[in-house]
Amino acid sequence: MRGAWDSVICPRLLPAPPRRTSEAPDRAAGYSVGPRRLAHVRGAAHDDPVDGEQGRTSGGLVRRGFLGAAAAAGAGAAGVAATGCDSAGRDVHRARPSRRADAARRAEEAERARPGSADWRIRSTGPPDAIEGYTDRVSVLPDEEVGLYVSTTAPAFRVSAYRIGWYGGAQARLVWRSGRVDGRKQGAPLFLDATRTVRADWDRSLRIRARNWPEGAYLLRLDASNGHQRYVPLIVRSRQARGRTLLMHAPATWQAYNTWGGYSLYQGRDGAYGSRSLAVSFDRPYAKSGAEKFLVYERALVVLAERLGLPLAYTTGMDVHLRPAVLKGASAALSLGHDEYWTPQQRRYVTRARDDGTNLAFLGANTCFRRIRLEPGPGGAPARTVVCYKTAYRDDPYLVNHRDLATTDFRQSPAPDPESSLTGVLYEGYPTDAPYVVLDSGHWLFAGTGVDDGDSFDHLVGVEYDRVTPGVPTPAPLRIIAHSPLVCRGRHSHSDTAYYTVASGAGVFASGTMRWVEALMAGTHENGRDHGMDARTRAFVTRTTENLLRAFAAGPAGRDKPRPADNVRAVYGTGARAGPGSGAGAAERAAR
Predict the structure, then answer these.
(1) SS3 53
(2) pLDDT of residue 67
(3) What is the DSSP code string of 183-252?
(4) Predicted TM-score of the model (pTM)
């Protein structure tokens, strides 16, 4: 979210119109699919795996009755869908699986068939210092070690590792639990004046080895002996994603918004933008539950993708920066619900993957908006600090010798490169709350949802939004499939859902709203963040996302799905844009 101090105020538009392929703005050809149901610690700790089997169910509904029937179903009514599409075919993205891949696939299926652990949720966070912790790595490979740093007012604590997935509706499985660990209250954090950076710099409490932990997204739950709990998120990442859908989690964005110790990239201890951190450290806990951004903007998509039985791989945006080979041969790469902070390297590698045939999905808004730099932490540990000076980028000493690496918005000088050239949409503003309006109900992404042109879904657009913006670098042809009127800070605009393809055959989808992943939980009051969205909205977003994930898992979508017919001019007309200095807050931006 944004406050009045931030550098983006609705709306933000850019000059320099791109060349756009001239296409007839005809309605894209519809695509029909068959109906489906909405469907180790050294010393004091021990391993405690959970095994078992569970069956799967399937069913069907006619297209026109889908939304109504799904809305009437309870939050746990969705059945496990059929397993993912066969990847055999004619190119690198459809190569016949190797024996190793077959073995990995069997292990993946066995993991998903195990019973879940319904008690994974936190029952009481207690006071902020009751128990809290952080790891010395945002991700590990299976069998690697990670250090855990814990502070608690309780005399002892335990750690439970839960892998997030479907698991018959339990949505997590207990993979490992520690023994009793002595607890203590750790010292006050270190404050680095030059960048107003807070580091806990605590003593390590224990080491954990992810022995026999399947790849995936994990929550380490800290259970204090006084009854209070906190999460510490951890990704057990994949070495490679060939033939799989790659989920890119966003710890850089989690950390940017983290206010632990009183500072984030948005505010200082006094709540003011001017006293904000210029760099934030991973060597500190996350505030609140310890995993708020993951729970709200990412977890529901992990659960859905696992329920669909698709071949999945896991990584983080920071790991893409450090280890881009994970993208090679991936069927798809998914950016989740709030993925704002990217390094130029991450962006370059993801763009290259697209151009090599990897489908991309941007399931939030405000994606790839901030240009960041990753720096080492204590002892030279790589990528433990996120640097983003934003409007104060001229004060960054690094800029003296690296003029093209200013840590400000990607679209801003001295090296403007708007995110729209990759995502197809441009971030415009905050805050808004508006209905999502379908423009092209015949598009294959909406197959089986039962929607018609003009159908709307209350509150689905928000709290930040993107739109297709004529006059900025945008791929073509590009199809707008939802066009939602809204008001942001008194200014009328639109949010757009867009789809385009490139020569490699890769398809690229952008939802245009930050609530897309949240909507997968709509009507359930999960995390208390449903914004008034209902079960009907959940059914629509779930089915559309299922269509997207299944198609993208099958290989380059542009080879099997209709080529998008460009309708940008038909929707927006020619020259329909504000000048670069116009719009709400232009004077305030210029003053900075």
Answers:
(1) coil
(2) 57
(3) --PPPPPEEETTTTEEE--PPP-EEEE-TTPPSEEEEEEEEETTS-EEEEEEEE--S--BTSEEEEE-HH
(4) 0.84
